[in-house]
UniProtKB/TrEMBL annotation:
Pfam families: Pantoate_ligase. InterPro entries: Pantoate_ligase, Pantoate_ligase_C, Rossmann-like_a/b/a_fold. The active site is at 37 (proton donor). It catalyses: (R)-pantoate + beta-alanine + ATP = (R)-pantothenate + AMP + diphosphate + H(+). This is Pantothenate synthetase. Its EC number is 6.3.2.1. GO terms for biological process: pantothenate biosynthetic process. The keyword Cytoplasm applies. (R)-pantoate binds at residues 61, 153. One of its GO terms (cellular component) is cytosol. GO terms for molecular function: ATP binding; pantoate-beta-alanine ligase activity. It is found in: Cytoplasm.
Length: 277
């Protein structure tokens, strides 16, 4: 596996794949890889002639009081893991390489970026769509792989590709969980021992709410999650998916999505399901 840090070198490496019309899989990540990323990469390896994984903690998607500096990083370990699962190129550029100009064109991700995680992370999805668009332009992948854990991000990227006619297939990959049900996340390392024990109750409560979806009540749902997790709910919402609108009787697929604050970390989780299942 090659670790490449410049756009020029990456495009030189990919040139023969474009010429031969071969398929390129892109797995965008912010590094500190876990099993969730490995699952994305394995799917990409199975479905493409070559796989590029990006490893870049994108500053434009972090707010001023968020954990950009503290976000865990370990390129050496990432390279080992990516290599093991068959990634051909790990693209790990510097911030200067990705953002050489100040004050240029920025992104406005639209109304679906202002709810759920976007409500407490203003501008976050503008930064996500900015970096994802740059990666799509740089790599020109056939398929791009995103986890369903970040369901709002996934929905917005689907909208981006649809609305801007990008010739890329988005491949959603199911949430990978620890044995006790906690969704895998690079940020789980910030949980205290007690929080780590209680955190799986977020998913367990979502499952209970799903089973009783006909009587879903947001206020009661907050109480249930907080009692079970001892965390503070940022949001719990039931929306249509992937358009993220209030549910109507016409909607068949919905998302039950929640975010929860602990002392040093904010966890998200969701269940996407068909109504009546
Ligand atoms: O999901 C992530 O890790 C990031 O938001 C992404 C898609 C790699 C963009 O920085």
């Amino acid at each position: 596996m090659k670790v490449i840090t410049t756009i020029q070198e990456l495009q030189k490496e990919l040139a023969s794949y474009y010429v031969a019309n071969q398929t390129i899989g892109l797995v965008p990540t912010m590094g500190y890889l876990h099993e969730g990323h490995q699952t994305l990469a394995k799917a990409a390896v199975a479905e493409n002639d070559v796989v590029v994984m990006s490893d870049f903690v994108n500053p434009t998607q972090f707010g001023p009081n968020e954990d950009y500096e503290a976000y865990p990083r370990d390129l050496e370990r990432d390279a080992r893991i990516a290599d093991e699962v068959g990634v051909a190129i790990l693209f790990a550029p510097s911030v200067e390489e990705m953002y050489p100009h100040q004050g240029g064109v920025t992104f406005e991700a639209g109304p679906a970026s202002k709810i759920l995680c976007g409500a407490s992370r203003p501008g976050h999805f503008n930064g996500v769509l900015q970096i994802v668009t740059k990666l799509f332009q740089i790599v020109r992948p056939t398929n791009a792989y995103f986890g369903q854990k970040d369901a709002q991000q996934l929905a917005l990227i689907e909208m981006l590709v649809r609305d801007y006619n990008m010739p890329i297939t988005i491949r959603p990959i199911a949430i990978v969980r620890e044995e006790d049900g906690l969704a895998k996340s690079s940020r789980n390392v910030f949980l205290s021992e007690t929080e780590r024990q209680l955190a799986p109750n977020l998913y367990k409560t979502l499952q209970v709410l799903q089973r009783n979806i006909a009587s879903f009540n947001q206020k009661k749902a907050i109480e249930q999650i907080e009692a079970a997790t001892k965390g503070r709910v940022d949001y719990i919402e039931l929306l249509s998916y992937p358009d993220l609108q209030p549910v109507t009787s016409e909607d068949t697929q919905v998302i039950l999505a929640a975010a929860l604050y602990y002392e040093n970390v904010r966890l998200i989780d969701n269940i996407i399901f068909k109504v009546g299942e």
